[in-house]
Design goal:
The chain starts with 5 loop residues before the first helix and ends with a helix. α2 packs across α14 and α14 packs antiparallel against α15. It is built from 21 helices and no strands. Helices cover about 80% and strands about 0% of the residues. It is mostly helical. Bound molecules: aspartic acid (ASP). The site of aspartic acid has 16 residues, from α18 and α20.
Length: about 450
Amino acid sequence: MRKLELHWQILIGMVAGILFGFIMTLFDWGPKFVQDWINPLGTIFVKLLKLIAIPLILASLVKGISDLKDISKFRNIGLRTIAIYIATTIVAITIGLVLVNLIKPGNGISEETIAKLTETYSTDSGVTSKLEEASRQKQSGPLQFLEDMVPDNAFAALGDNSLMLQVIFFTIFLGISMLLIGEKSAKPLKKFFDSLNEVVLKMVDLIMLTAPIAVFALLANVVVSSGDPDLLLALLKYSGVVVLGLLLMIVFYSIVVASFSRYNPLTFLSKISPAQLLAFSTSSSAATLPVTMERVEEHIGVHKEVSSFVLPVGATINMDGTSLYQAVAAVFIAEALNFDLTLAGQLTIVLTALLASIGSAAVPGAGMVMLVIVLEAIGFPPDKLAIGLALIFAVDRPLDMLRTVVNVTGDATVAMIVAKSVGKMGEPKVKNWDDHLEEVK
Ligand code: ASP
């Protein structure tokens, strides 16, 4: 019998998890049961993906750079990548701003709902912790991000998943220096990283075997931990605007893929769908990164010289879904709380949402932390920030899941067009977890 394709297996796991979660909410003991006995399966899966993220970036980026054989090519790829990332993020923010100004979801929300949301969430630890995190991030100077990118201890950087840009910096430095010592001297190290890269990609295959069960657990937990359904409904119009914007982004990527790389966008979407489904289930581009890399390289055929740089950098700085959401949320909050937003204010949103999405960590809920910075930049009264966040907190998790799908799709799209533009697209070479099983049995 032909085995069901991975994305169908994952999708079935997701639907079953959602149904199971709903059934469990019918019982008093249900939510606790899911949290204690089901959720750990999802958490372990996310931990496994994070476990291999840094070794994968290290091995594949060193391999990618040393395969280039020529530093000027790397500069070419680097500049294109950053320019295209900025361009797609500006498109996302513009789409968000146009939609929110046309549909005006903030006008339709009643005083009563605002009062109820404020009462429920403005002192909630979820909201207050986001405000605290934002004020920690804000106290830095303009060039802080450059300073933060350079590690002072390579092993400390490699030991901390939140320091992905430091790892990328160190690895690029290492890769370029390897090119500069000449092929012969670099050979042993190159062989080591080539082999490590293959091993880590095999680990991705093995971890993915458990993906259907893991997404079942993750989604069941999301359902039992979600808030009051009435409040979710009250925010339907706002959520609808964000979702519509995110859908338009997927259409935008499809057009870009079709026109710049002459690749069928439906095939593209189906090839990266396991990564999208995981992005949805985990709400984390960083946790999804190993799968995104595997799909883009092995299933689409983007060469490692491009994907090993474009994708890890994208996971950390390119968040189109997040920036779109920040633009919509900022205008929605301003409108709902009668804060006058001028044209200059809207332009400030474009700039700050661009920077805020670059600064957002690739983990669940990070977009909301940086939203605080966008709100402050438009002069939103600081004493009302908690109320502002309280307004959108109830729907943040589902929107986070969706914007993470867009973040990951954006990275994959850019990897493809950069690869095409520098002649680094090849044939897909799919490897399965059991390709060499017979030899070791
Ligand atoms: N969860 C998102 C990501 O990992 C970031 C965010 O928008 O909160 O891409």
